Request: fold
Amino acid sequence: MEYSLFSRNLRYYRKYNGLTQNQLGLLSRLGQVSIANYEAGRRFPNEKNLSVLAKVLNIEVSTFFTDRNIDIQQNNLSAFSIDGFIKVLIHETIDSCFEYIVSWKESLKYSLQKTYNNILISTLREVGNRWEKNELLIAEEHIISEKIRSLIILLSNKERSLKLTPVRKDLVWLGFAAPGEQHYLVLLMFAEIARNNGWEVFFVGKDIPVHDLIKALMVYKPKVVFVSIQMEELQEKLTNYLNEIDFKLKNKPLIYVGGRGCHTEYAKTVNCVDGFIKTFNQGCKILINVEEKL
Reply:
């Protein structure tokens, strides 16, 4: 029983610190194989190695043998370390990052939407804060962003392979970022949520000329358009785009704008859109509402 409790607590506090078995093995100098054997209950560390593990995990040795009824599902995101996840994103391969986040998704019993919102968006927010404080190198920020982009798609593909939701031809979603925008990862999450819900998705991304965008809207005839703006200095350009779309299209789709660059004062100046997205969950709710009406 004591060995089983130790194994369970070791796995919990390793994940709480955002470490893979390999990382804990390196930090403790015990090796990944030993950590795997400890967690599987195949071996038990001696007193010296117990102290080393406790020191690396910042806990007392006695904590390994305390029955706290540890359950990651009950502890929810408080057990998930964003700091640890950022370290994994910087130092590990994309395969290891994917394995890491899938493990947490399954442990927390998160839906795709909740994984995006509670883990990936929270991580992006923290990365942005650290970058603004010069606590991250530009290269590190780029590495993290690129890996999160890959994770968004990998998680969606895994989900879709399990659900096999048929595509509805009457549900067409199109998304684009404000002209000059460089960040659009949350918009990509919306695209993948829509795709998993049976929408036909056209993600045109960033820097698309307005005349090409209007042609795309005419050809694909989306029911809903999501627009992302993160930088306030792009507000005027985006307004010009939206006004041009409003003027040129006879049958205009529902258009929703969201992002950090879309604050309340800006929203008051734009009259040619149907609404503004303040949270990720709100955007997902908009999709559901449209689905239910059709």
User: Anything to note?
Assistant: Residues 55 and 61 are 8 Å apart (CA to CA). The mean pLDDT is 89. The beta strands are 172-177, 200-205, 224-228, 254-258, 275-277. The first strand starts at residue 172 and ends at 177.
